[in-house]
Design a protein that fits this description.
By secondary structure, this protein is an alpha/beta fold. The protein has one domain: 3-Layer(aba) Sandwich (Rossmann fold), CATH 3.40.50. Strand 8 and strand 9 form a beta hairpin. Helix 2 packs antiparallel against helix 3. The relative contact order is 0.13. The protein binds S-adenosyl-L-homocysteine. The site of S-adenosyl-L-homocysteine has 24 residues, from strand 2, helix 5 and strand 4.
Length: about 240
């Protein structure tokens, strides 16, 4: 059985399990993954806990088999239904932004492949993730099960409403772009330094934005330019 560790520097799954998952897949070997981590380092990711999780997360299991050989390139890839798995650099940067605050309970809007949630899982106590496209939500749930990620709870629902049942969250990561921050996400953020990371802007270019809540005061910081698929309302 694969083992999940709570420690921020822990393995996502045991090395022996990694080997069995990777057997015979040269392109998805540990060496390929080490190269990705080296590249993220040169691109400015210095958080060792985040880099360790990326080193140990089998991204090739989050894309279609036909794309597995490209899984450790630092690029977004299609996952069907007009959606993409985020670029590893962006996953690392967004994770880095919320992890420094040691969040316990994290909400992700836009499960997609499940990769971002899987990267968060070993770093926090509980990950809630929501997806509006049912087949994607189902596939992601199967991946979490296969990887033994028992602290990830995946819901098929509209993330513009947040996930009120388990609020407040120490951090919320939105992996789809919006012109405006949905009010529900602001409401469901912890009043004690809760952090929201969201790409804000139109369809071609957005700015990664960090919102920090203290009481009813929301501080907003504009960061790197990014490109994400749009945050849409309703379920399909
Ligand atoms: N975090 C994902 C990347 C997802 S791409 C990964 O690691 O693979 C963005 C995802 O957000 C898409 O799957 C899209 O369907 C989803 N999405 C868009 N609007 C949404 C909404 N209102 N609620 C939930 N999910 C949404």
């Amino acid at each position: 059985m694969m083992q999940l560790m709570a420690s921020p520097v822990g393995w996502l799954i045991k090395p022996s399990d990694m080997n069995s998952l990777n057997r015979g897949i040269g392109m998805t070997s540990q060496r390929t993954r080490d190269r990705l981590v080296a590249r993220l380092r040169t691109e400015g990711i210095h958080n060792e806990a985040v880099l360790d999780v990326i080193r140990n997360t089998p991204r090739h299991l989050f894309v279609d088999e036909a794309l597995a050989s490209r899984a450790y390139e630092d690029t977004a890839l299609p996952i069907g239904y007009n959606q993409t798995i985020s670029q590893p650099y962006v996953v690392a940067a967004m994770t880095d932004l919320i992890i420094s605050n040691h969040p316990k309970k994290v909400l992700e809007i836009g499960t997609g492949s499940g990769y971002q949630a899987a990267v968060l899982a070993p770093l926090v106590e509980k990950v809630y993730t929501v997806e509006r496209i049912e087949p994607l939500a189902k596939q992601a749930r199967q991946r979490f099960r296969k990887l033994g990620l028992r602290n990830v709870r995946a819901s098929y629902s509209d993330g513009t409403e947040g996930l009120p049942d388990f609020a407040p969250y120490d951090a919320i990561i939105t992996t789809a772009a919006s012109e405006q921050i949905p009010q529900a996400l602001l409401d469901q953020l912890s009043e004690r330094g809760g952090r929201l990371v969201i790409p804000l802007g139109g369809s071609n270019l957005q700015r990664l934005t960090l919102v920090t809540r203290r009481g009813n005061n929301y501080e907003q910081e504009s960061l790197d330019p990014v490109v994400f698929v749009p945050l849409l309302s309703g379920q399909v």
